[in-house]
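Recall the central idea of this unit: under ordinary conditions, the amino acid sequence of a chain determines the structure it adopts. In this exercise we apply that idea directly, starting from the sequence alone.
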Amino acid sequence: FLTDLVQPAVAIITSVGLVHIDNFPSIEEIAKAKLEIVKGIKDGGLFIYFGDDRLIEETVRNTEINESIRKQTFGLNKNNTIWLKEFNQDLDGITIRVSDESFDELHIDILGKHQALNAMAAILAAQEFGMNPEEIRSGLLKIEKTGLRNEVININKCQILNDCYKSNPVSINAALNIFELFKSKKKIAVLGDMLGYREMSHDIHYNVGENLLHYHIDELITIGKEAKYIAKAAKENTNIKSIVEFDTKEEAALYLKKYLSEDCTILVKGSRFLKLEYIANKLKEWENE
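Accordingly, the structure predicted from this sequence is:
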């Protein structure tokens, strides 16, 4: 309906994941729903998508698309229209080189490899609208970050990576990769329920817990009934020294208060419904107590 109403000149699909699985019977149906965006693209318009995702590629092949609509892809593989040649990041942001030789090194004040992919999609769209490389570079330097996504909050010796806008397995991995950049003496991951996964929920949360094996985490704190499966998997599959389970964010905040004077980094990640930004807000409130 929206694409028919707006009739975009350019449409972009960055990813397909399980985020909306509570509204669809399978991830394949989610992909089909996302591809509906092409139905409203103007004749001669441009469709940009993540070319490394097999499901997206397969769905594109099986979707009837107006022959006048051009397709461009971005990703890590060299068969894409634009691909990522180099990627580096530190706490000041990401630095990338892309396959388009019109661009030298690009620095963007944002964190995460997924943001490098998003930047390439933006480059393709900007080029379609006639922007030159310098204009695009300037635009990338002016990115305005949305709240509750990878916010770094300093409280005494403690740093909080506040990433509470939403939570799913992919975004948790992205947050943990950023969490690895911090070199504090103590690393604490606070993970809350991921909502909307129905009968798949226990397995999905358990898988997240198993994956924690690949990250430097000194203490894991879980919040909520579903997140207990993250804790269970972490106990069974990782060497995390301390694993603490809470039912509420209020309990977790009180527990974390003792760390405010320590050299530590606390990652806070959970579904929007949980409003886990409460934790950072309370810890900030207690800063001088």
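The radius of gyration is 21 Å.
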